[in-house]
Amino acid sequence: MKKLGLLLTILAITLMLGGNAFAQNVGDNSVYFVTYYSNANTTGAPDGTLRIVNDGDLSTTDYEGVENNPLWADIYVFDDSQELRSCCSCKITSDGLLSESVNKELTADEFTGRGQIARGVIKVVADSLGNATAPVPAPGLHGWMTHIQATTTTFPAPGPGNAVNAVEKGPWFVTETALSDSNLTPA
């Protein structure tokens, strides 16, 4: 009798969930991601890294593994004033990995001429054509970002008998998080 009760409970839960309780996960259809960067181009701070992989789901139906659907990561870098400062489109082949340095690649070639950027937002669109100005969204990219977190430590100021404290940044902590899934609209 206990087995029948358990079976009926499972059946009821399945029906309440729309019959999808035992459905196989067919992948994530996300195409638009957002993250942040901080303490970029800061003396003594480590460099942040944006990592994006192509899961290969759209790669090929050819038994020899011939590539027929690479994806591009259209990357848009904004400063903390919400101004677009740089963008690029990077090809990622099936099962491939793209690693971009925040200091040396993402913020180094900014097109406003205003100098180095310390913090802001990075947006990524998974694109099937590789045109950052008119992307054709396609699922299959997944990403992570290392974040550089600063602590503030108070040290005695240099010099004998000086009771004044000086504030310095450090040590630096590095965390890594998945890119946040966002909603992409035609606008």
Biggest sheet features:
5 strands, antiparallel
**Beta-strand content estimate:** 35-45%
Percent range of helical residues: 10-25%
CATH class label: Mainly Beta
Report the count of strand segments.
9
- Largest sheet strand order: 4-3-6-1-9
Q: Which second-level CATH architecture applies?
A: Sandwich
Task: Give the total of domains.
Answer: 1
Structural class: mainly beta
CATH topology: Hypothetical Protein Tm1070, Chain: A
Backbone CA Rg: 23 Å
General shape: globular
Summed over residues and divided by their number, the pLDDT gives a mean of 80
Oligomer, anyone? single chain
Determine the CATH superfamily: TM1070-like
* Contiguous runs where pLDDT drops below 50 for at least 5 residues: 11-26, 162-166
Distance between the termini: 58 Å
Task: Give a brief outline of the structure.
With 187 residues, the protein is mostly beta strands. It is 11% helix and 40% strand.
Structure notes:
The protein is mostly beta strands and 187 residues long. The protein has a single domain, classed as Hypothetical Protein Tm1070, Chain: A (Sandwich), CATH 2.60.290.11. The chain is 11% helix and 40% strand. A hairpin with a 4-residue loop joins strand 3 (71-79) and strand 4. The longest helix is centred in the first third of the chain and has 15 residues, at 2-16. It starts with a helix and ends in a 6-residue tail after the last strand.
What are the main properties of this structure?
four-stranded antiparallel β-sheet, single chain, 9 strands, mainly beta, Hypothetical Protein Tm1070, Chain: A, five-stranded antiparallel β-sheet, 187 residues
